[in-house]
Amino acid sequence: MTPAAAPRPTAAADWRALGTTVRLVVADPALLDSCNLLLARQLAEVDAACSRFRADSELAALDTTHGRPVRVSPLLAEALAVALRAAEATDGAVDPTVGSAMAAIGYDRDFTLVSEDDRPVSLRVRRAPGWRKVTLDPATGTVVVPEGVRLDLGATAKAWAADRAARTLADTAGCGVLVSLGGDTAVAGEPPADGWQIRVQDVTGPVDETPVQGPYDAVGLRSGGLATSGTSARRWQRGGHDLHHIVDPRTGLPVRSPWRTVSVAAASCADANAATTAALVKGAGAERWLTRLGLPARLVAHHGTVVTTPGWPGHRAALKAAA
Questions:
Q1: Which amino acids are annotated as binding site, given as ranges?
Q2: Residues 198 and 246 sit within 8 Å (Cβ to Cβ)
Q3: Could you say which of 32, 45, 131, 286 would form a disulfide bridge with 87 (CB–CB 3.0 to 4.6 Å)?
Q4: Under a CB-based contact definition with an 8 Å cutoff, are residues 134 and 147 in contact?
């Protein structure tokens, strides 16, 4: 009998960017430093193109176009295309036109500063303008954002950036790569024998996304992406209101969902993230919606009950992302 090969070593780096935690794991430890430098450069480019909190970002510049068609960089055009596809795939539950609603509830700056702001907010129901009002011509990279519409790519850009970085690093380094941005995880290249082992659990705390104590699943992801969205983290108080960052486009207010956390595996981290956010917005029956889409998912109710859809693995089982 031939002895089993010893597990290949990996190396990891942890830091912060895009207002969240960054974790990079590579299958070849000798390539960690060079991959980390490339990742930092890629995330800096994404921030300059897509940040809602930088006055000098490309996205912020769209606020001043007054409905005129403008040409944007290929990077922002790609990020917008991902956001619009997510909106279409989720029937508008994930909508990039919630920028004004996010600002209205006080999430108008990097989250580390949000909880320090004690200005009162006035909460009122106001439907988001709607993603169909935004037009993108991929061939020319031309975008039209109507007057008064502010875009927020927070529901998709981080996961898309993880996908983009994982692919680029794996192609460049020629080894397996895992990129996690705030818990939204993308993998590319040759995975470890038992997959990339990922702990899936509720998170809490305004900034550090610290796992809470309690039940969790440890799964091996072999391809695609895994994302988690929830209402337990990134919460703040303002004028007596308990607020969080997941906005319902139908009301412009923080979503009221029976789920506190949703995790989904999909062919890409961007697809997984869109599904998790949409599940929180859709609320009751979201597990049936995810099942119809064939997406392995784990949903945690506010009282702690865990519901899974077909394909979600047991403890330390290998998980192949849905196509």
A1: 155, 277
A2: no
A3: 131
A4: no
